[in-house]
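[step 3/7] fold_predict: job queued, chain A
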Amino acid sequence: MSANQEAALQKEYSPQLGQPPGQPNLNLLKTETRTQENPEEDPVLIKIENMSRVYHINRGRKKERFTAIQDFNLEVRQGEFMTIVGPSGCGKSTLLDLLAGLSFPETGHILIGGQEVKGPALDRGFVMQGYALFPWRTISKNVEFGLEIKKTGKAERRRAAQAYLDLVGLTGFENRLPYELSGGMKQRVAIARAFAFEPQVLLMDEPFAAVDAQTRELLQEELLRIWEKTHKTIIFITHSIEEAVFLAQRVAVMTSNPGTIKEIIDIDLPIPRKSGDLKSSPHFNWIVHKVWKSLHNQEDEELRETENPDIENEIDPDTAL
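[step 4/7] structure written:
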C-alpha cells in the first residue's frame, strides 16, 4: 500500500462518517474476562433484514444478474463472537463487505446499533487474510493508524498502541518494520490495529488462513483471550469447521449460492478455552460433526434431538474432525 493510498484511507474514514474524535478507553483491557453465562440476554447490536445482493455482469451486449446473497436474515448480539461457515462462493466475504459499508444491498437493510449502514465508518474494524500493513510505517505506527484518523492525541495514540501490542505479545517490536516480522506476527499487528481504535464491531475474513497450523492455534487462543478482555462484537469468516466451533458462541451455517442462513448452532463450550484437551474432547468433536452435517446438507434427526448424548457412541471416529 502506497503513501497516496494511506492518505486516501484517512480521508475516506474521517470522523464525519459518524464516529466523533475521542480517546481510546484503555480501561477495557483491565476488565474481567467474559463468561458464557446468559449471552442471550445481551442486546442485539447487528440486525440484517431480508437482505439480497445482486451483481450485474456485462456479457457483450447482454447484462446478466448474479445473486450472491438472497433473503438473508441475521441478528448478532452485543459482545458476541459469531463465526460463519459455508461452501466456497456462497457469499461470506460479500457479507463482510456489506457490513463494512464497502458495497450495498439490492434489497433489505443492515442495522448496527439501530443505524442503517450507509458506508465505511470507525464503528467497524476489518481484519483480512492479507495483513494490509503499511510497509514504511513501524509496527507501532501501523497500530496507531485508526487513532490518527480519529484525531486522537499523539501521546494517547502511543499509549494505546503500546497497550495493544503488549496484549498481542509484541512487546519489544514497536520500532520494527513489517518486513522484519513473520506472518503470524504481522497478523498480530493487524489484530492490534483493529482493536486499538475501539470499533463496536470487528469483521474478520479468514485472518489465519495464510499461517501454519501451529501459529494458527496460537492466534486463535490469543484472539479469544483479547475478546474475553475487550467484549467486542466479532464476526469471523472461516472455511475451517474446527476453528469456527473453537472460537464462537454461535456458528452460522450458510447455504450454497445464493447464500442465505441455513442454521445457527449454539456452541455450549466453556469460556475461557484452550486448544489442547478441548479439541480432542468427545463433546467438541460432536459439535464439529453437527456443523459438518449441516454444512453438507445431511440431516440427522437423532443427532438434532439428542439433548445429552453419549458422545463417544454418537460419533463415528472417521467423521470427527
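[step 5/7] annotate
The chain has eleven helices and ten strands.
The two ends are 38 Å apart (CA to CA).
exit 0
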